[in-house]
């Protein structure tokens, strides 16, 4: 039996694509919009991982060009979400919104605060199932149990995007260790540091860095700072 060689790519935070105006800033880990780099192509079905900041009282609009599951994860503050089906939700911290959109659908995000900025992630995953259905949902999670990964989308959590991707998030004390084992051996892992620093498979990744791993069934990691936060996504590499 031939053992596939592990493949790893690190995406440093300071090399992300940046789009900025007076009221909005986007740091794109992968190619998005006008940002195009040969080393930042989609990771399997993961099309985009955008770290965005929206000014007080402002709104952004997005249109969908293909079947896509869009995950919205507030990091600082909350957002008002509206879609082209008439759905409206207020998304707070420790909540995750899913918008499944197809070509021609649209949505908007609004910062409801008068003075404060809002920081959040937008994660775009290619919809790959024949039964893809447009719509939106809101899901809760919490960090009551620290130092472990909490499922926030995909099996076994309540949220199941059509692409069969899954993701977990964890809040860790300094020097605490953890691991993640793939549910599907032909998937890849995409790790994103939300806060602090981690040693992941003997590689240092710091706040807003990402790490993509292929041909590895299990990863081990250790938090190198207090209140370090990690997002781990298991991603199909092919539709």
Task: Indicate the topology.
Elements: E1 7-11, E2 17-20, E3 24-28, E4 46-54, E5 59-63, E6 68-76, E7 79-83, E8 88-91, E9 95-101, E10 106-110, E11 118-126, E12 135-140, E13 150-153, E14 166-172, E15 177-181, E16 187-195, E17 197-200, E18 203-206, E19 210-214, E20 218-223, E21 228-236
Antiparallel strand pairs: 1-19, 2-3, 3-4, 4-11, 5-10, 6-9, 6-11, 7-8, 7-10, 9-12, 13-14, 14-21, 15-20, 16-19, 16-21, 17-18, 17-20
Question: What keyword list fits this structure?
Answer:
mainly beta, 7-stranded antiparallel sheet, 0% helix, 53% strand, 239 residues
Q: What's this entry about, in short?
A:
The chain has 239 residues and is mostly beta strands. It is 0% helix and 53% strand. It has no helices and 21 strands.
Describe it for me?
It is built from no helices and 21 strands. Strands 2-3-4-11-6-9-12 form a seven-stranded antiparallel beta sheet, with no helix packed on it. It has a six-stranded antiparallel beta sheet with strand order 1-19-16-21-14-13, with no helix packed on it. The chain is 0% helix and 53% strand. The model has no long low-confidence stretch (mean pLDDT 92). By secondary structure, it is mostly beta strands.
- The topology string of helices and strands comes to EEEEEEEEEEEEEEEEEEEEE
DSSP helix fraction: under 10%
The largest sheet has its strands arranged as 2-3-4-11-6-9-12
Structural class: mainly beta
Overall 3D geometry?
Answer: globular
Biggest β-sheet strands, sense, barrel: 7 strands, antiparallel
